[in-house]
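Q: Structure tokens for this one, please.
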Amino acid sequence: MRDLALERGASLAALSAMIGRNPAYLQQFVTRGSPRALLPDDRRRLADFFGVDGAELGAERSRPAFVLPRLDVSASAGPGAWVDGEIMLGAEALDPALATRLRLKAGQAAIVRVRGESMEPTLIDGDLIVVDQAQRRPDAQAALFVLRFDDAVMVKRVRWTRDGLAVTSDNPAAAPVPAGTPTMIGKVVWLMRAPR
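A: Here is the predicted structure, written as tokens:
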């Protein structure tokens, strides 16, 4: 702090006044360690003034955003969307704390658009969902999964029962789910819906 102030030709007293503190505030911080840490707003203003990252003044380094590919795949919530290939349309950034909470790993998750009405009211046409491809095993607790029946990619509610895999739509008026065993693509772990 003292070196940055000297480079700028500013006294610690003047910098203290700039952030709305008493003239001895930064002098005491530098020489006595009181306060032990600068308040976030004070640190931000000083970092802006010096043109440095707040971490140089004691702030935690910000974690980079967790970036997910946005794929050109529609997980149909209707009769099934035909997939021409999983082409990346772009990328979306998630807060790193959210990615940690969802236990997402780089390269094992993607964003997919929902099409159709068979999962209403849970999912509606146009919703974007985060699919964790590391989670492909349903259990007895019903959860939303993206799955593939032949070439049709769908999002459905899936759970294991005594009789095997149960795949259902949330909308009772939806067409029946295709017969056969689907390929599990991944579990839906987050809904990215714009307010309506």
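A few notes: The domain at 66-192 is CATH 2.10.109.10 (Umud Fragment, subunit A). The CA atoms of residues 14 and 23 lie 7 Å apart.
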